[in-house]
Design a protein that fits this description.
Blueprint lengths: L3 E6 L4 H5 L1 E2 L9 H13 L5 E4 L3 H10 L5 E3 L14 E2 L20 H18 L4 E6 L1 H11 L5 H6 L8 E4 L1
Parallel strand pairs: 1-6, 3-4, 3-6
Antiparallel strand pairs: 1-7, 2-5
Length: about 170
Amino acid sequence: MTTTLIYETHSITTDNEEGTATGWLPGELSAEGRRLGVGLGERRRDVDVVFSSDLRRAVQTVEVAGLKMPHLQDWRLRECDYGELNGSPADSLGPRRDRIDVPFPGGQSYREVLGLTESFLADISRWYAGRRVLVVAHSANRWCLDHLLGSRLPLEELLDAPFEWQPGWKYEL
């Protein structure tokens, strides 16, 4: 029985607009982010359940989307913890590929995010088989999902590629 997982990024935040690397800080949707969140709700009314990161910006995206199906928050869907660099300018994170196995000072590595994503997917496969599952999370989660279920490219290549927004990514479990 195939499970369809649809991934969407959280909507635009004031930090995104200012070039700030929010990391594990809550973040707040901007006016444009709230407008885009409504659009997410319009295109995702056909899912059975919604999972999001428990960070405020992801939860707020689901709230403004106005979806009526169950919404569950899961801490395993958080952005990479930049540790001491949470809230710093995004360009101060350095080459992200350098953090695949080496954690940010006081934070996580991308390999740790990958492990949490694998744990989340195992639970989805077990408990939501045959359903359409919407996941609203962060860029690190998208790279992990693409590595595990999509392109299967190495994390190094995914982290180096420019981010190109689109209205969701679809994966099959």
